[in-house]
Amino acid sequence: MTRLFAWLALLAGCIYFALPLIGMTEFSLKMRRGVYSLDAYRKVFEDPSFWATFGYSLTLAAATIVVGVLLVVPTAYWVRLKLPQARPYIEFVTLLPLVIPAIVVVFGYIRLYNTSSILPLTGSAIGTDFLLTMGYTTLALPYMYRSVDTGLRTIDVATLTEAAQSLGAGWVTILAKIILPNVMVAVLSGAFLTLAIVMGEFTMAALLNRPAFGPYMQLLGANRAYEPPALAVIAFAITWGCMGLIQLVTRLAKHERAKA
Amino acid sequence: MSFLNISHLEKSFGSLRVVKDFNLDVEQGEFISLLGPSGCGKTTVLRMVAGFETPTTGRILIDGQDVTGFKPNARKIGMMFQAYALFPNLTVADNVAFGLKVNGVPRAEREARVTEMLKLIGLPELGQRFPFQLSGGQQQRVALARALAPSPRVLLLDEPLSALDAKVRVSLRNEIREIQRDLGITTIFVTHDQEEAMSISDRIVVMNAGIADQVGSPFQIYNRPTTRFVANFVGTLNSFEVTVVNSTTLEMDGQMVTMAEPVTAEPGSRITMAMRPEALRLGRADGFETVLPAVVEEVHFLGSVIRVSARMAGTAIALDTFNRPDMPPPSPGQTIEIGLSGKHAFLLDR
Ligand SMILES: Nc1ncnc2c1ncn2[C@@H]1O[C@H](COP(=O)(O)OP(=O)(O)OP(=O)(O)O)[C@@H](O)[C@H]1O
Ligand SMILES: [Mg+2]
User: Tell me, what's the ipTM?
Assistant: First the structure.
């Protein structure tokens, strides 16, 4: 009896998630009257702005991942090694982006770095891209930090550090050769999450007026009928692709270990 | 001047004084053990030599060079930890090569050295394995090879064997000692296992509550302990309250014991005389001039040695005797005679 209810609940859940997706996908295939076709997808792929914005967001995602790794790995490492009592506070700080809306952050940026400020970052495209990257890094921080911190828990950070030090290694060597490789799986899953977040982000890119993928999706959605659902399916595929990659990387790493 | 010189070393964590006025001179190539109960500060001393803790006061000199203020990675010290601490992401060969690589040793030389080191620890075939593919004993050997590869000036080992099972522990400790002797590397070995310390050390430092109580060869430490703590901590000890009769004679439960060395205490005062279990004899024997009756409480047959627990002169004692196939041990409840001699006794004043 309870089993039946469990199955029913699961079914209801599946329908709740799947139905809109199926509906959306079906609609995206109906651009040509009367038959299913991939016309909407072709239209999307033929649009140069699609590729331009997609490429832009991808580049920014890569930059965000690099900045995030450079910021988070040494920080999480140092906190574990030298300031374990500060961990709850650091964790709290990294969670702030979840409660502070992106719009607040971006208005803060605009106020602080506008063209009449001391540091007029919004005055140039490259400066704005830098700001946007920093904003994305902030958004990705909760996921990146958690992921890396969990990764660090699986190794004996203190002893490995001391072993490396006694062999003559300095901090940079220790981080690059010992710590980073050992938390690579965690870094990668953090990276894919970051990628998924950046690819879909709208608020920051729109308010900083940069040609990112999120605003493009929004623009298309406001003006077309069939292409937006096609785009949504593509975006969805990217996100799930990222999730799949996280799974794959984790699985492969486990497999490596199990090969013994 | 000694190769490694530690003078007036002190360490406090907050108000807790963990190491107090620790002094030690280690000769080049010597194998020294720091022995003591848990929490006595052994690891802290070792970590100060390695540079992982900063001494509150005191100096550490290696080969005449004051390294007290040096960073750990500038001390040219090899260290082996209780947790194997191999780098999980590197192969065995890369683990061993790590110190060489960091120090900029060229590739060809590095590879030759790694091969040499793996041969030294008896694992020449395992260079391409990862640490998780090795047993605990093998991992610890690799850790030794890794520590030795850059030819450190001093080798520090912090209970490297305590995570291994008994058999591996014994064979590996002998191996470590052999390699150490071959290379002639100055070594400090931390352990709380007295048998381990006794069997492989040139000298032992017995530590008690942050103080080096006694420094000496295993033979000295065992046979001539200078403090009550050392006497009790190392080996089993029988101690008797005795009365001083004159400068050579003590009275023990009505029997006279003639000491080999003069007794400085006032005649008539009560002092403690101590003897190891193997210094007591079952029955009468030549050279064991004092004989006392005792009641056997328990008999433990340990193979080559038989340990008899008995009650003699009002105190519980332990007596060790070699097994003899033609002479079965006494049984519990039996009254026996025990022979002893002042030559094998020592006095505990502190
Ligand atoms: N970082 C630290 N902060 C505060 N107290 C410490 C620290 N490290 C060690 N201590 C204290 O110093 C004392 C000595 O510690 P140490 O690790 O040197 O002992 P040990 O002789 O190695 O013991 P064991 O045999 O258990 O390893 C202990 O009371 C310990 O609690
Ligand atoms: Mg210790």
Answer: 0.83
